[in-house]
Design a protein that fits this description.
It comes from Shewanella sp. (strain MR-7). This is Phage tail fibre protein N-terminal domain-containing protein. It is built from six helices and 59 strands. The chain is mainly β and 804 residues long. It has five domains: 147 residues, no CATH class; 122 residues, Triple-stranded beta-helix (Sandwich); 79 residues, no CATH class; 195 residues, Pectate Lyase C-like (3 Solenoid); 68 residues, no CATH class. The protein has a 29-stranded parallel β-sheet that branches. Strands 1-7-6-2-3 form a five-stranded antiparallel β-sheet. Strands 15, 16, 17, 18 and 19 form a five-stranded antiparallel β-sheet that branches. Strand 25, helix 5 and strand 26 form a beta-alpha-beta unit.
Length: 804
């Protein structure tokens, strides 16, 4: 069964959203289309099958699932019909547009007749589109009968299955569960009752299962699947297959997914090879009961340290602790005592004084307090926790350095992580290479030097070489010391592809704040950065290609608020207030270009670099080409003008500026060695110089207001290869006028500050005699032009001129 939103529907949604108009969808259409395959993809340009319509009915109920999903419903009652349908359309009669289509197997709609009750059917259309609830003004929550929970419940089943596989292994078995063994009767074998996991699906064999084998060798497979009965009771099912061929997971004709696992190979009547992988079998005593809430304990202790010192514990006994170092310090847990040769990590596995080991049973999600971590250097405790578990919660304030998470680790920071006092220069809080799919998140703090003494070293916070990882939600900063004798160090750095930094709060960093290094397909978004104390550099810096920076707010940064040395990238929605030196937003740096990148929706205020003459609200440099800048605004006080509003230099070519406002700059736009620049829809105010062009590169201006500049166009190449359409040089001077040809002497000069050598000047006759006059422009100059005529001028001849 296939369902789509039509191209026409999608275009209607977009048009209504752009026009800020309500979207009305009001009709269900039912049709019976011959030879239609309900499983085939639907052509989104498909129209209404008018010749096959069998019924139409109004939308009877609407509901909101979330901001981006709404449901339209109608009920075909028992007195409607009879007809058959296999095509359902959702239609907007107000806009005469088919919005969505559903192809279904043929459905028969019966009607109530004497002695026979008709059927009642409900049909629902779920429409998913960004902001659709607001667009349609649907505010009422959807009723349960309007929702199809099948996909969601199936997803929950799959998630539970995947969690079991992630935490304990894809295929594993408890003790001798599902073990194949020979029986006394010849050529018969027994599958032992017990519990196992097949692809994360828990299966249980409650009674012995007998296998009969006629030839050898043979493989024994367990086949597991999930199914329900007529009472809607769903549970895992299992079966066994004996075969001499290999089997793989498969989907049966009903569409049910089956998972298979090779339990054994039977070589002879008395020779069975157990293929349940050694080391994956859960044959340890302590996994028989994984529920701490129902775990019966033999001993209780105030702390794990007290348990460690107690010499009377025996293998197989169970212990509960109410703290790690002290009672009620948050580090309580449940342990099983074992006599195996294990490696202690002082958290999941604790070596007792009597030589036995205490093993935590709830080891998959651990807390820093359970390992005794504190504000005293707890590096070994935190690394021990991550060695024993993939999931760590920082639930107390801790101090640590060079924490090394493994692949797939999750660190949830709800408190503070501080670097230990007197850490070495360059130490990081979290640092690792080659470990992918990390998640570091929470609402806590990672601090480098906030609580340390003056004069100590610079420190990294998070430095990772990783792919597919994410840093989210935490506060970061204070990784500097003004008295430090060493070079500054980046605060947070991620090198690799498909990484994300999001919803971070950055304070008082040292060198660059958040850095993507040699990165592709990465995102930095929803960042708030505020530096009141240090001599920081950029808040965000990216290097690589195909990256996204979005929704960044900075206050009081040292260098650029955002630096982009990344090609084919987007810098969007930037607000930056107070930049102490260098540029507001920078594209291209140190022989690294940002070609083919886009900057949009950028606001810069208070650019304060009094030393660097090239400091600009937005800079494009080092040969960066094909940059598009759209919606840029910069405001500086007139008593403290920025050196430049926009600076494009050092070989930048084919760049475009549009929708720009610059207020308070020595030079509004500076162009140096740029080849070609297009400026469209720009206004300059309180600038000493409007556009400064220092070479013969091409400048195209459209709808540009330079009247807010004392000198509108300057530089060695100001008039060379410059073109203008609707360029305003002085709002108070003329752009057009009329001339009576019989009352002037030739050549005749017209003075206007809006005239330039490159301006487009149009001369038009105002009457018939004016049309006869052979008028031509004899001189074009900055600030005036002159006209002349060839031949005589008839009485009353009149013309008009205008600059476009």
């Amino acid at each position: 069964m296939a369902s789509v939103i039509t191209i026409a529907g999608e275009q209607l949604f977009a048009a209504k959203a752009q026009a800020n108009e309500q979207l009305d969808i009001d009709t269900f259409i039912f049709a019976n289309v011959p030879n239609q395959d309900p499983s085939a993809p639907i052509n989104r340009e498909e129209g209404i099958p008018t010749a096959h319509i069998v019924y139409q009915q109004n939308v009877q109920q609407v509901g909101r699932v979330n901001d981006n999903v709404v449901v339209y419903s109608t009920v075909l009652d028992s007195i409607t019909g009879p007809f058959e349908f296999n095509w359902v359309g959702l239609y907007s009669s107000v806009n005469q547009k088919l919005v969505a289509i559903n192809h279904v197997p043929t459905v028969t709609k019966t009607v109530t007749a004497p002695g026979e009750a008709g059927n009642t059917l409900n049909r629902n259309f779920g429409i998913e589109y960004s902001g659709i609830a607001a667009l349609t003004n649907i505010t009422v929550d959807a009723e349960t009968w309007q929702l199809n929970f099948t996909a969601r419940l199936s997803g929950m089943d799959k998630l539970t299955q995947q969690l079991a596989a992630d935490m304990n292994g894809k295929d594993w078995f408890i003790d001798d569960g599902l073990k194949v063994v020979p029986r006394a009767t010849a050529n018969t074998f027994s599958v032992t009752p017990g519990v196992g996991y097949v692809s994360g699906l828990r299966v249980e064999l409650k009674q012995e299962h007998i296998l009969i084998v006629q030839s050898y060798p043979q493989f024994v497979y367990v086949d597991a699947w999930f199914s329900g009965n007529a009472n809607s009771t769903w549970s895992p099912q299992l079966a066994f297959t004996v075969t001499n061929t290999e089997m793989d997971d498969y989907i049966d004709p009903s569409g049910t997914q089956h998972y298979v696992y090779k339990l054994a190979v039977i070589n002879a009547a008395d020779d069975v090879g157990d293929l349940r992988i050694e080391g994956v079998q859960a044959n340890k005593e302590w996994v028989k009961n994984l529920s701490p809430s129902t775990f019966s304990t033999d001993w209780t202790f105030d702390s794990a340290q007290e348990m460690k010192a107690f010499n009377k514990l025996s293998s197989g006994e169970k212990c509960r602790t109410f703290g790690y170092k002290n009672i009620n310090d948050g580090g309580g847990s449940i342990y099983v005592i074992v006599n195996d040769e294990l490696e202690s990590d002082d958290g999941n596995i604790i070596l007792l004084n009597n030589g036995l080991f205490a093993v935590r049973i709830n080891k998959d999600f651990v807390k820093s307090s359970e390992y005794g971590a504190s504000e005293i250097d707890s590096t070994s405790e935190i690394n021990g926790a991550l060695n024993g578990s993939r999931f760590l919660t920082i639930d107390v304030d801790v101090s640590c350095k060079n924490v090394a998470p493994k692949k797939g680790s999750v660190i949830d920071i709800s408190k503070s992580i501080l670097l230990p006092v007197n850490s070495d220069n360059g130490d990081a809080v979290i640092s690792n290479e080659g470990q992918d799919k990390l998640l570091i998140s929470g609402n806590g703090l990672i601090s480098g030097n906030k609580h340390q003494q003056a004069g100590e070293n610079q420190h990294k916070l998070i430095h990772l070489s990783t792919n597919d990882s994410k840093v989210h939600g935490i506060e970061l900063g204070w990784n500097y010391s003004k008295e430090s004798p060493t070079e500054s160090i980046n605060c947070v750095s991620m090198e690799g592809d498909r990484n994300i930094m999001s919803a971070l709060r950055l304070s008082s960093w040292s060198q660059e704040g958040l850095v993507l290094k040699n990165s592709k397909y990465c995102t930095v978004n929803n960042i708030v950065a505020n530096d009141e104390d240090s001599d920081s550099w950029s808040a965000v810096q990216i290097h690589g290609s195909h990256n996204l920076i979005d929704s960044i707010i900075t206050k009081n940064t040292g260098a650029s608020s955002v630096g982009c040395d990344s090609q084919h990238s987007i810098v969007n929605n930037i607000i930056s207030d107070t930049i102490r030196y260098h540029n507001g937003v920078n594209f291209g740096h140190e022989n690294k270009t940002a070609d083919y990148s886009v900057a949009s929706n950028i606001i810069i205020t208070n650019l304060n670099d009094e030393v660097n003459p090239n400091a600009a609200g937005l800079s494009v440099s080092n040969g960066t080409k094909y940059i598009s800048v759209n919606n840029f605004s910069m405001k500086n006080p007139t008593q403290n003008k920025a050196n430049k509003g926009i600076n494009i230099s050092n070989g930048g070519a084919n760049n475009q500026l549009s929708n720009t406002v610059i207020d308070g700059a020595v030079t509004g736009v500076n162009l140096y060695s740029c080849e070609y620049t297009s400026v469209c829809n720009m206004m300059l105010m309180n600038c000493d110089y409007g556009i400064n062009k220092n070479d013969d590169s091409i400048l195209q201006m459209i709808n540009v207001d330079l009247s807010g500049s004392l000198v509108q166009l300057t530089g060695a190449g100001a008039t060379q290869k410059t073109r203008a359409v609707n360029a305003i040089f002085d709002r108070n001077d003329s752009f057009s006028g009329g001339i009576s040809l019989t009352s002037i002497s030739f050549p005749y000069r017209v003075s206007t500050k809006n005239m330039r050598e490159f301006s487009t000047l149009v001369i038009e006759p105002s009457n018939a005699n004016g049309a006869k006059a052979l008028v031509y422009v004899s001189v074009r100059a900055n600030g005036y032009f002159e006209i002349n005529v060839a031949g005589t001028v008839d009485s009353g001849a009149h013309i008009r001129w205008r600059i476009v």
